[in-house]
Amino acid sequence: MKKILILLVIMLFCVSANAAVDYNNTNLRHKIAQMLIIGFDGTKLTKDSQLYDDLINDRISGVIIFSSDSLGNSKYKNVQNPKQLKKLISDINKTSKTKLFISIDEEGGKITRLPSDRGFNVKTLSHKELGDKNEEMTTYLEAKKIASVLKSLGFNMNFAPCVDLALNPNSEVIYKAQRSFSDDSLKVIKHANTYILAHNQYGILTVLKHFPGHGSTSSDSHKGFSDATLNWSPKELEPYQALISNGAAQNIMVSHIYNKNIDDKYPASMSNKTVNELLKGKLGFSGLIITDDMQMKAISDNYPFDEAVISAISAGCDLLIFGNNLSYDKNLAKKFNDVVFNAVQNGKISPERIDEAYLKIMKVKERL
Predict the structure, then answer these.
(1) Where are the beta strands (DSSP E) in 105-168?
(2) C-beta atoms surrounding 280 within 10 Å
(3) pTM, to two decimals
(4) Would residue 14 count as lying in a domain?
(5) C-alpha–C-alpha distance, residues 175 and 169, integer Å
(6) Looking at residue 164, which CATH number applies to its domain?
(7) Which band of pLDDT confidence, cut at 50, 70 and 90, is reported for residue 72?
């Protein structure tokens, strides 16, 4: 009898321990799904759409909204007018089995997904214009305008602000697009802090970008391989270090920039040396780490899908974005889930890495 009791206690302990490790018995595929933010086609959610299928089958962690299709196949992509967009987001949330990240790139200035000619009242100054004015109250009010509109529509995540330094006047993607507050890191830190504060007051998550710095390169990682080796400066890390230290950095987006000084094999988003060793190790960042769109040509033209996904996750990235805007793949969520699942089964990604990402993601979602 005594032996039976001891055996029962051991069995109960094992069940309890396994439940704790498995985070309330959620399965591996559910954890993997929580690592994917995806773009989609359409201005409304219908039961015959791929997004609906992905939602009811628990394949994604969130969506990213675009107002136009870069391929020219869709005039509106996801955005027609405020009433339509608000209903679309509401329907997406109602259909999902889990809380979702509803995300957008709404930096201000030229970088907007909510056009004024479609009825959105969110026209604001660019990062450059705010830096040139150098008035914290102006930055606060402009960022507050963005955050309040996002909140009213149902968004909870904004991929902003940019904390890239305006170091290269020839940069089409940063300097000429007016996406940097300044070439002075102290000014960038000041205005980024204020921008983040305004979003926090409306419950909108912010995401610093593009780690470890995109402002010194002239090439655009949307269009192809982008090498910062000769131009990148360590001072591009200063905004990240300061905003991590003062607690303002909630989430950080890692770019696809290649920098031989940091990693001579992989671009930042796929680089263990950049993400695990530099961002998490040296800079001490413990928040969510998100990749830039993995369909950008810097990745998609140079690395197979499997290698890119496995390397990014192994490097320490928690959330991967596939915007489905530079190219479209309706089966992307299924493909992503299968690749990661098989990689765990084959020992290419450790279960502990999946658990680490999952727990971080769920901790953030509990606050949404």
Answers:
(1) 157-158
(2) 18
(3) 0.91
(4) no
(5) 6
(6) 3.20.20.300
(7) low
